[in-house]
Amino acid sequence: MPSTPRPLRRLGFLTIGLFDGADPGRGHESTLEIIELGERLGFDSAWVRHRHLQYGISSPVAVLAAASQRTSRIELGTAVIPLGWENPLRLAEDLATVDLLSGGRLNPGVSVGPPMHYEQVKEALYPDTADVEDFGYERVRRLLDFVRGKAATDFSGVEGFEVFSDVVQPHSPGLGQRLWYGGGSLSSARWAGEHGMNFLTSSVVRAGGPEDAHDFAQIQLSHIREFRAHHPDGAAARVSQGLVVIPTDSATPEQRAKYEAYAAKRLPRTTAPQGPARLLFAPDLVGTSAELVEQLHAHAGFREVDEVAFALPFTFEHEDYVQILTDLATRLGPALGWRPGTTG
C-alpha cells in the first residue's frame, strides 16, 4: 500500500556554487550570500555540492567554515564529499573543526567510488599508490571511526613540551551522529543503515540488477525502506530527499521560460537508465507551488520522508536563486506543511 504524505518537517536547499574562472571570488561570495538568505527565510539547512577540477566548489568544508561565521542557526551540509579524493583522518580533523566553529551545525555527507576521470587524474592525486587505493566502504568506515572518537594511533602522552592524543583532535561530540551517506543503490542504503549513518537520496538512482525498473520513485522508495530496515533507529532513521524542484509563483515570464527550457533539455535522460552504471534520473519539477504539491504528494519517495534538500539548478543567475528560494520558503514549504525556523 502506498504511504500517506506527511507534513514536511525540515526544508533545505542544495547549491553547486558555480563560479567564473576569471573571477572565482564573486561566485564563492554569491554562494555565501545565498546561504545567508536561506537563514533569513527560515530554511533548516543549506547544502553545497563538491566539484574537483571544475568551476564549482572544490572545498565545501572551507566554504562552510566561512558560512558558519555569517550565520547562526541554519544547518550546513555537504552533498556530497567524494571520499576517493580525501584522506579520512585529515578530513575528520577539518570536519570537527568546522563543526565546532559552527556551534554543532555541520552535516557532512559523503560517498564512495573512484574519483571521476580517475585514469586521467590518478598520477596527480595518488602518484605512488594509484593502483592500490581502496575506494569502497572501508574509506567511509575509517572516517566514521575517526569522527566518532576511535583511536587513530597507539601513541599518546607528553613528549617534551608537546601533548599528543591518540584520537583525532579536535573532537566534536555529536558530529558522529550527523554524518550522511549519499547513496543511489540498495547496497549503499543497506550499508549506511547498518553503520548508523543518515541517508541522502538525490535525483539519481541505479536501475541495474534487482532494481531493474524505470520507475524512479519506486526505486527510491525501495532504497529508503532498505536503509531504515537496517538502521538501529528503524522508521525514525533520518532520510533527506534532494530532487530538483523549481517553484514559479513569483517568477517573471522570462524566468519561467528559462526554467521550463532547462527542465525540458534534461528530460530525455529520465526516460531510461543511462550509461554502464545504469543511472536513472528523476525529472526536474517546475511549476507553481500548487502544481508542485500535487506532484510531490504523488511521488512514492517523497511520501516516505519528512525532510528535503531541494537542489537548485546548476546554471542559473543569482537573482534566479533568490526567487526560487523565496518561493520555496514562503509558498511551497508552507503548502507542504512546513513552518520556517527562526534566526538566533
TrEMBL record:
Entry-linked InterPro entries: Bact_Lucif_Oxidored, Luciferase-like_dom, Luciferase-like_sf
TM region(s), chain numbering: none
Q: Which residue range or ranges hold the Luciferase-like domain?
A: 28-262
Q: Which domain of life is it from?
A: Bacteria
Q: What is this protein called?
A: Monooxygenase
GO terms under cellular component? cytosol
- Naturally occurring in which organism (per UniProt): Streptomyces fuscichromogenes
User: What UniProt keywords are attached to this protein's entry?
Assistant: Monooxygenase, Oxidoreductase
Q: List the molecular function annotations (GO) for this entry.
A: monooxygenase activity; oxidoreductase activity, acting on paired donors, with incorporation or reduction of molecular oxygen
SUPFAM superfamilies for this protein? Bacterial luciferase-like (SSF51679)
Report whether Oxidoreductase shows up as a keyword of the record.
Answer: yes
